[in-house]
Fold this sequence. Notes:
By secondary structure, the chain is of the alpha/beta class. It is built from six helices and twelve strands. The strands form three sheets. Strands 1, 2, 4, 6, 8, 11 and 12 form a seven-stranded mixed β-sheet that branches. It has a three-stranded parallel β-sheet with strand order 3-5-7. The longest helix is centred in the C-terminal third of the chain and has 20 residues, at about 200-215. The model has no long low-confidence stretch (mean pLDDT about 90).
Amino acid sequence: xxxxxxxxxxxxxxxxxxxxxxxxxxxxxxxxxxxxxxxxxxxxxxxxxxxxxxxxxxxxxxxxxxxxxxxxxxxxxxxxxxxxxxxxxxxxxxxxxxxxxxxxxxxxxxxxxxxxxxxxxxxxxxxxxxxxxxxxxxxxxxxxxxxxxxxxxxxxxxxxxxxxxxxxxxxxxxxxxxxxxxxxxxxxxxxxxxxxxxxxxxxxxxxxxxxxxxxxxxxxxxxxxxxxxxxxxxxxx
Length: 237
């Protein structure tokens, strides 16, 4: 894993793209991922103005409907896991927490609010993706992105049951260490093998799309100009 970790410049190149554009680029560099590896149902995003976030997945599962049973995951051990980063050591690489609420009624109790957003931001996380709930929206850590199943007022009996394993959030199956790109539209996993190829593929698509958009915006544009642009662009989204 450590040899695949992107440097800051490479991460910045991905942050400059929105998540739909990343999905488009993956259709070029990883065509087998065209219909898999991204969220497939809506997530609540109370902070749509925040820029895209990129990071390595820290995974966990939680419950909130019933009190924690003996032997569940220790909260401090979970925080240590998050702090360890993608390379398994104390690291400055960004981490995105992906937490699956495994209750029969996901989102009854919120793990995410003022306290945990600030803790996770201090541990190097730009945000969270969860099918569970969030709260304390106005008081959450500044700049911390929240993508969640719903917004609710209580934390109920919320507790981490385990961490570091595979999870599924809104149709996206995630393993610890996966490279995630996310924004207000949702999230997608970027395979490590093609991560460095995504920005160039995105630029290629943007160039093709600009042909169509320019033709459509030209004064007096008609079906003739649009058809010509579509033919020239060859591929667009």
